[in-house]
Design brief:
The chain is α+β, with helices and mostly antiparallel strands and about 290 residues long. The chain has 5 helices and 9 strands, in the order αβαααββββββββα. The chain has a 9-stranded mixed β-sheet with strand order 1-9-8-7-6-5-4-3-2.
Length: about 290
């Protein structure tokens, strides 16, 4: 009886440990993640993100590579009821400029950090890597080496100074990494539609594996009473990048960049020093150091 009881107790401990173990977002040294879309997916119900204006269907560069159709620019829907009037006007302004022929210049194209929410949308032609450590989780975009630091702590840093990525703290809840971020500046955009936000922005992300670990999902919760009329939610999904690359190669589709063992797999992608930098486009600018940092 004692042996049976001991065995049952050991089994229970083993099951508890399995449940308590955090998710592993990188099963190999080259595991990366490739986003489904550069626009957020709407939540199952309730207020959701700004979406493409249905009057102007979007054809992405990826659509062009697959079908040959002429790409179009993102045009956000300013009638989304989550938007404060000034935020809706900001989208209308960028839409008017875009439709007049002025190119949209992303913050990455100007060698600037893109902020938490747009970070989630970025890994379309280059992957995102996730490194899980004891005290922090680091997320790396191969695009220009943009990096997020998520501190595994229960309190935000005291006396926060507004920054591009704010102050992110995280913890594991079973199979989910929960990330809470505050302390943003107002220099980034929520998405590719240039949806604005204020320094009151507060985000909560929940990262978890789905489809047997072949896909990654993040459920995003956004609050910013300065820019939005109500809190809202969005979803983003990712596929394993190497799987996408193999499938694309088999289908004869050329991705803009491929992570390969020969490349590391993390390829270097420079910005300001690039001979094809968009700094030469009229209206674009890149950060310039006016004083030495030593």
């Amino acid at each position: 009886m004692r042996t049976v009881t001991t065995a049952l107790f050991a089994t229970a401990l083993s099951a508890t440990a399995a449940i308590a173990a955090p998710p592993n977002f990188a099963t190999t040294a080259s595991t990366g993640w490739f986003a489904y879309s550069r626009t957020f997916l709407p939540p199952p119900s309730g207020p959701g993100p700004v979406m493409q204006d249905p009057k102007y269907p979007l054809v992405t560069n990826d659509d062009f590579r697959a079908t040959g159709r002429q790409p179009t620019y993102p045009i956000g829907d300013p009638t989304n009821p989550i938007l404060q009037p000034w935020a809706a006007d900001a989208i209308r302004k960028i839409n008017a400029e875009t439709l007049s022929g002025k190119p949209i210049i992303s913050q990455h194209a100007e060698c600037r950090p893109i902020g938490v929410t747009y970070f989630l949308l970025e890994p379309m032609t280059r992957p995102m890597f996730i490194i899980q450590g004891k005290n922090e989780v680091v997320m790396i975009l191969e695009s220009f080496g943009d990096v997020r630091h998520i501190h595994l702590a229960d309190k935000h840093t005291a006396n926060l100074k507004p920054s591009w990525y704010g102050d992110s703290i995280g913890h594991y809840e079973g199979d989910t990494l929960v990330v809470d971020t505050i302390g943003f500046n107002d220099k980034t955009h929520i998405d590719g539609f240039h949806t604005p936000h204020t320094t009151q922005l507060h985000t909560v992300e929940r990262f978890h594996l789905v489809d047997g670990g072949r896909e990654l999902q993040v459920d995003l919760h956004v609050e910013d009473p300065g820019a939005f009329t109500t809190p809202w939610n969005a979803v983003q999904r990712y596929r394993q990048y190497e799987l996408v690359a193999r499938n694309a190669k088999a289908a004869g589709v050329q991705l803009a960049a491929l992570a390969t063992p020969e490349d590391g797999p993390l390829s270097e992608a420079v910005c300001a020093d690039s001979p094809i930098s968009l700094q030469f486009i009229r209206g674009a600018s890149i950060p310039t150091a006016k004083t030495p940092d030593f």
